[in-house]
Amino acid sequence: MHISAKADYAARALLELACEPSRPLTCEAIASSQGIPFRFLKSVVGDLRRAGLVRSQRGCEGGYWLGRPADEITLLDVSRAVDGELLTLRGAVPGDLDYPGAAAGLPGVYRHIEADVSALLGGTTVAALLAAEARERPPAHQGAA
């Protein structure tokens, strides 16, 4: 399976936005924080906006916010927003494949892979990823009094 740069950048942008829900973030700030090429990120954020995963505000106080609560945005939503179908084989979705003879069982394997990946991505929210990251982060050092 191939995870596109667009899907990776989109997920990383949404995680940045979820960290700062009280204020909008600019594409410049997200790109700088995550090491994402700015021009590529602008295109990705446009896809996310069209899918309703982010919302935007113009002007000097403008930028981007999450379009829905972080616990309602899954990695499956993100992948589909920027890439469309989750899994394709030469442009066909696994449900449309039908092979003759000895290869007849192969499309079923592809459908199974797609279902498993869909379940994993669909069960992983932006909020859950932030919570997991917070649990893994070492506590801040408390100075001696």
From TrEMBL:
Record flagged with keyword DNA-binding: yes
Keywords: DNA-binding
One Pfam assignment: Rrf2
Origin organism lineage: Bacteria, Bacillati, Actinomycetota, Actinomycetes, Kitasatosporales
This protein's name: Rrf2 family transcriptional regulator
Top-level taxonomic group: Bacteria
Gene3D superfamilies named among the record's database cross-references: Winged helix-like DNA-binding domain superfamily/Winged helix DNA-binding domain
UniProt-listed SUPFAM superfamilies: Winged helix' DNA-binding domain
